[in-house]
Request: fold
Amino acid sequence: MTTIIHATEPAELLGIVPALAGFTPRRSIVLLPFRGARTHGALRVDLPAPDAEPEAFADAAVHALLQVSGVDAAALAVYTDDHPLPVPDGVLLPHLVLAEALGDVILEAGLHLVDALCVTPDGWGDYREDDPTIRPLESIPVGHGIPGVGDVRRDQLAGAELPGSELADRERVGRALAELEELLDRRPSTSPARDANPIALVTAMEVLDDLPGFVEELIEQPADDDPYCCAALLWCLDRPALRDAILVQWATDREFGCRALEAQMEFSRQGGDIPRTIGEVFLGRGAPPDPDRLGCALELVRFAAARAPRQAKPGALTAAAWLAWALGRSSHAGVYVDEALRIDPEHSMASLISTMLSAAVLPEWVLRR
Reply:
């Protein structure tokens, strides 16, 4: 998002951060990239662990900032639950060493440092003041400068929780998944049992005959009340080759999804390399996806994860994490990937996404928009 702002005072800059980010940050560092008088949105990362190396963290965070095209200045704001520390000659703002490291790396990168601010439960202050003054939070204007912005009072995790689900729905999906697994996991030479559920048979044939068509229809016409469609999606997302092809398709289109599926099947049979164009999509490079399309896919996967049996959740949660990351919602991606790893600590894709999030890696298409 590119927005012209007219903030001339630090408080006005803090007032515009929630509108730029879409939420009110908490326990976060926010970097605002500027090109002249224009800011290109807001980059938010979690505050690092207490034992993290400030310089290494600052290098990674500013590296992400520098991916924004044409950036020539930056502001930083630390949002913390910690309180300012009283000292004989005034107060020390929390995370001072980290803020200084970030400021140094910003300046070393040749950028102008617009502001370096800290928001605490007691008020806000300026890291660049020799004797910081704690100003009241009420002095930060609300929603300053961007008309039409909705409610941004909740923090970065707002909306990350999975949709609610009824026990009866979860049981239906669990039974459907068991039936589909029996059909889809059998050897090709084995005929289905005579008493196989015909609905399960039809769904299994749809998946096997035209997976790209099946997942395309799911985002175009979601079957919210069909436990077999939900179970089939869960079955696919639990198999890396199919999951990856599906995610690539949702980030591009059906034609590219067919190519991705063929490449994944070839890789599964013979090994070798995945085509570069497909790998680029996973890394957030290339043409930007349609955000509405990704958003539909994310809601579909979140709905499936909410209704999935526990052992089938990691695949759907990991897919939700990648889709959220691809949309620039790294905070939400972290929620989904953490839950996936709680269920399956060895899940390779979830571990990879977790590493990317820890390194503040963002999709290039998010940084360009």
User: Anything to note?
Assistant: The mean pLDDT is 89. The longest strand covers residues 112-120. Strands lie at 3-4, 28-35, 38-39, 43-46, 73-79, 85-87, 90-92, 112-120, 123-126. The chain has 15 helices and nine strands.
